[in-house]
Design a protein that fits this description.
Order of helices and strands: HEEEEEEEEEEHEEHHEHEHHEEHEHE
Distance between the termini: 70 Å
CATH architecture of the largest domain: Sandwich
Structural class: alpha+beta
Shape: extended
Strand content: 25-35%
CATH superfamily of the largest domain: Galactose-binding lectin
Largest sheet: 6 strands, antiparallel
CATH class of the largest domain: Mainly Beta
Number of domains: 3
Helix content: 25-40%
Number of strands: 18
Radius of gyration: 32 Å
Oligomer: single chain
Length: about 450
Amino acid sequence: MFAPVSPNSNIKKLVLLLLVFSATLIGWHQLGGADRDFRVSKPDWRFAKVDDSSQGGKTEVEMVQSDAGASVSCSIVFAAKYPFCEIAIHTQQLGESIDLSGYHSVSLDIDYYSPSPGERVRIYLRNKNDAYTDENDPVSYKFNAIEYSPGINQGPVVIPLNSFHVLSWWIADYNIPLEHAGPDLSAITHMEIATGSYVQEGEYTLTLKSMTFHGYWITEAELFKLLMVIWLAAAVGFLCYEYWSVRYNFLVASQREERLRKSNVTLSLQAKKFAALAERDTLTGVRNRAAVQEWVSQAVKQSQRYHRDFSVIFIDLDHFKEINDTHGHFCGDEILRDFTLLISEWLDINDVLVRWGGEEFVIFCPDRDVKSVAELAENLRYQVEIHEWVHGVKLTISAGVAQLDEETYNELIQRADDALYKAKNGGRNRVAISSPYH
């Protein structure tokens, strides 16, 4: 008699090993192990002063350099059309460039003394590309730009690189096609830190204390993709192992056939019991998503066949994760139960409240048009906002409303979901109505 082979022990060890490995990698990433910094400093970069003299200006500039940066003092004079002074930072080798597309932000520590407090400086990251750059024309290097007010002794300011934009006048003057009109940091040859767009006559001092770009050796998304590949490879290996185990264990399967047949009777009874329980959400007591799928599908078809109204409200509890993080999951569960009780008080007998998942709920409203349902959604939003929740929590909801058109059940839900996201993106605590397809 062959003894059945059980792979459970090896599987548990493999899963535990993968969990430890995954947690270690994620922890390493979260603790900064993948961080990559690039500091702009001498001798890798050259610092120079630039003023408006090439435009006929009379601004006088003096510069003092340090290992970390430079400082320029300017006497702005309104002689040129656009008077300015700036610190220009170039790569040591002319024509050399650096790829900054793998970085996500830049830390700038700048002091800006100006006649009026709060004046802004301009930051340019100049990019080279054969599609638009003429090495004999310095203005043809793309202007990836941003302006901000650094103040004095405010310390480093972290600016996301996706905040930089391309100057519109440069796009227009050089007739840049759409494919090259967006920001590009793949070949930066030099950088500029200049006085603001609206300067006054007077004394300015622009001091660059430090400039550091921040990125990752591997991004969080790339890390999770890598872990997914590892888990999938482990799953494939496990399936192959299971295949050979099943072939071996088939020799003893006949011995359990009768016992399994008897067990099936018990399991069938249990399955019916569990099916009844599965129709209700265990936390709130309202119907769950799986329980209403068939009913909604049929209700949509009937409403379309007999030209009857049918509308949907898609609800999301605003910032619910913050409530769980601040007050704990027990408080969050209590709020979800209280929320379903509050909402149920304002529904008609034919309205069906469903917990769609997490903090998302859907209300199906047969024989109600979009105007009536939008008024209901607005009333629910108001009732939630004024309700006194446990622990003094302030709770609001966002809702998307859609009325059935010539569409499928899934398309109706998707339109309501899209309207919900429109409400959330509009500031939350509001109701948005979806327009029909036709």
